[in-house]
């Protein structure tokens, strides 16, 4: 068994420097996780016990033997999951990745949560998160890891659909009056057939709110892009590579309307790794809504 296990280990000699550092960092933090000495020791202990029993010195019951085999099989599956997730993360590392700056506690927490994940799509999600943390240490909280560990494949699918509606609002170039940016799904009315046909309805919103990925407010949220949006000011909005500049007039003390849904902190962090794809019709739908907004005077399409 140890031969088969060792044959699946990641070959450090074939990896880039950031990938090598990540593997070594993981191995150090989680106790030699790519060197399954613990499994080998248990196997050797069982073999030794067989010899001792044969000599009549102790007696091992069938129940104990089955427990040994179950333990070995379970640990082998966990080891395979850990190695698969790590292997999938390695090609996603940037050249300037900083895996050596990941906290050991974070790595321990990560693998404690993902070692039971065997489904391919869920492993892909975990691997993107691991690579993202290596590329930008501190990007993902341990709370987010716990939230992700509670998701099943259906939850992840619904969340990925929602993330297809995600836009980023930020200041115009050179403007300093706008004090923040925001990444948020733009769901203006989950009862609208437009959203329903694309997989978003009241039940989906309620479920995602229940599992801690979003917040929902029936009368909608407004984002305070600045302390006041004065005549001629505005903001930039990005949607999967497309960019539009929105110019406004008049005071907007209540902020700009951004729909009935907002990410929680964990939801916002997971939105960057869920693998969502753009919805072409959404671009036109949202711009039409904004074009009819009283305070919007101009939509300048950049890309």
Quaternary organization = single chain
Strand order across the largest sheet: 2-1-5-6-9
Number of E strands: 9
Spell out the helices and strands N to C.
Answer: HHHHHHHHEEHHEEEEEEHHE
* Rg computed from alpha carbons, rounded to a whole number of angstroms: 25 Å
Distance linking N and C termini: 56 Å
In terms of topology, how is this protein built?
Layout: H1 2-7, H2 17-29, H3 37-54, H4 62-89, H5 104-114, H6 120-135, H7 142-149, H8 153-163, E1 166-170, E2 182-185, H9 193-197, H10 202-210, E3 214-216, E4 222-223, E5 234-239, E6 242-248, E7 256-257, E8 261-263, H11 265-271, H12 280-291, E9 296-301
Antiparallel strand pairs: 1-2, 1-5, 3-8, 4-7, 5-6, 6-9
Helix pairs in contact: 2-5, 3-4, 4-6, 5-7, 7-11
Report on this structure.
By secondary structure, this protein is an alpha+beta fold. 48% of the residues lie in helices and 13% in strands. The strands form three sheets. A five-stranded antiparallel beta sheet has the order 2-1-5-6-9, with helices on one face. Strand 5 and strand 6 (242-248) form a beta hairpin. Helix 2 (17-29) crosses helix 5, helix 4 crosses helix 6 and helix 5 packs parallel to helix 7 (142-149). The longest helix is centred in the first third of the chain and has 28 residues, at 62-89. The model is unreliable at 1-9 and 227-232 (pLDDT under 50).
């Amino acid at each position: 068994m140890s031969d088969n296990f060792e044959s699946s280990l990641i070959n450090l000699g074939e990896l880039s420097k950031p990938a090598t550092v990540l593997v070594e960092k993981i191995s150090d933090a989680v106790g030699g996780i790519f060197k399954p000495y613990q499994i080998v020791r248990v196997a050797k202990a069982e073999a030794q016990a067989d010899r001792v029993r044969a000599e009549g010195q102790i007696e091992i019951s069938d129940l104990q033997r089955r427990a040994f085999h179950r333990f070995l099989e379970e640990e082998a599956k966990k080891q395979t999951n850990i190695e698969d997730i790590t292997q999938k993360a390695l090609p996603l590392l940037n050249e300037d990745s900083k895996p050596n700056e990941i906290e050991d506690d974070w790595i321990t927490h990560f693998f404690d949560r993902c070692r039971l994940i065997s489904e391919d799509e869920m492993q892909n999600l975990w691997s993107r998160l691991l690579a993202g943390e290596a590329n930008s240490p501190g990007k993902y909280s341990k709370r987010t890891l716990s939230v992700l560990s509670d998701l099943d494949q259906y939850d992840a699918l619904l969340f990925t659909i929602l993330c297809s509606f995600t836009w980023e609002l930020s200041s115009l170039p050179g403007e300093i009056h706008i004090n923040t940016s925001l990444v948020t799904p733009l769901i203006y009315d989950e009862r609208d057939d437009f959203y329903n046909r694309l997989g978003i309805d009241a039940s989906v919103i309620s479920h995602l709110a229940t599992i801690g990925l979003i917040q929902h407010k029936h009368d909608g949220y407004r984002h305070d892009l600045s302390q006041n949006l004065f005549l001629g000011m505005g903001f930039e909005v990005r949607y999967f590579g497309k960019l539009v500049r929105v110019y406004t007039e008049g005071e907007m003390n209540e902020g700009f309307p951004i729909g009935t849904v907002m990410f929680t902190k964990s939801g916002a962090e997971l939105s960057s790794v869920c693998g969502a794809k753009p919805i072409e019709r959404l671009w036109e739908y949202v711009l039409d809504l904004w074009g009819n907004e009283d305070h919007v005077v101009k939509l300048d399409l950049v890309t």
